[in-house]
Amino acid sequence: MSISSDHLENVFSDASENGLPLRQRPQVELCRRGEIRAEKFLDAATEVFAEKGYQHARLSEIVARAGGSLATLYRIFGDKEGLACAILERRMDMHIHVLSDLNLTDLSPEQALRRVAIRMAQLMAGTDSQVVYRIVIGEGQSFPALRDWFFDHVVASIRRTLEQYFEQQAAAGRLHLASPKAAAAQFYMSLFGDQVLRLAAGGPHLPDVDTLEAQALASVDLFLQGALPR
Question: Are residues 107 and 150 in the same domain?
Answer without folding.
Answer: yes
